[in-house]
Design brief:
By secondary structure, the chain is α+β, with helices and mostly antiparallel strands. The chain has helices at residues 59-77, 93-104, 107-119, 121-124, 130-138, 144-151, 154-171, 192-200; strands at 2-3, 6-7, 40-41, 48-54, 82-88, 178-181, 184-187.
């Protein structure tokens, strides 16, 4: 996909490197934000931090976002029980482009744009996505010039790919959605009842300044 002279394409993630950084630098910190910063919902003091790695073209991610996440937000995020972080793991150039557009909108609009795109996923996750994507994002205040500039932003492109590549190399993420409940991994879509059990069985959060370990 070429927009504004910039080729929008994914970089292959490569093989997993386990839970340890290369060159023996110690355990990888799951809580380290990417170059574009972290986008989160909920209190920083919540006892459980849930991180979801998602792809915008993943139908299971869309089902979770549309059918389950509103209940998660109401029962856990808004009540201070869970801090929820969404991270990018695009599987294809279309998903990468969608995440770039959400990032370009700014942190305060990131989740609303992601929600809008998941709800309209079948409309734009098609062979020719640009026209329907633009039509949808005009509802959120995008102009055509802003749309093109966002997809040509190399900093955002590199930042999204950094998050994806790090997840694959250091946390063995290979499918979406993949969740981490205080570092404990769950792969695949969850119902609200499963989410409840995963929150209750999550390991204790580490003290401030200590690494959140990844466990299976």
């Amino acid at each position: 996909m070429v927009v504004g002279g910039i080729v929008v394409a994914l970089v292959a993630a490569g093989g997993g490197y386990g839970l340890w950084r290369l060159l023996g630098a110690g355990p990888a910190d799951l809580m380290q934000p990417g170059p574009l910063g972290e986008v989160a919902l909920g209190s920083e003091n919540a006892p459980v931090t849930v991180i979801e790695y998602a792809s915008m073209t993943c139908p299971h991610c869309g089902d979770f976002a549309v059918n389950t996440f509103p209940l998660v937000k109401e029962r856990y995020v808004d009540t201070g029980k869970v801090r929820f972080i969404l991270r990018e793991f695009p599987f294809d150039p279309i998903a990468l482009s969608a995440f770039m557009l959400a990032r370009c909108a700014g942190n305060d609009k990131f989740f609303p744009i992601v929600d809008l795109l998941f709800r309209t996923q079948r409309t734009w996750a098609v062979e020719r996505p640009l026209e329907p994507l633009l039509a949808i994002l005009k509802q959120a205040g995008f102009t055509e010039d802003k749309f093109k500039a966002c997809l040509a932003d190399q900093k955002i492109l590199d930042g999204v790919q950094w998050v994806r590549d790090r997840a694959a190399k250091e946390f063995n993420v290979s499918a979406t959605p993949t969740f981490f409940f205080n570092g404990r991994t769950h792969v695949g879509e969850v119902t609200i009842d499963q989410f409840d059990q995963l929150v209750k069985s999550a390991p204790p959060a580490p003290p401030p300044g200590q690494v959140m370990q990844v466990t299976r």
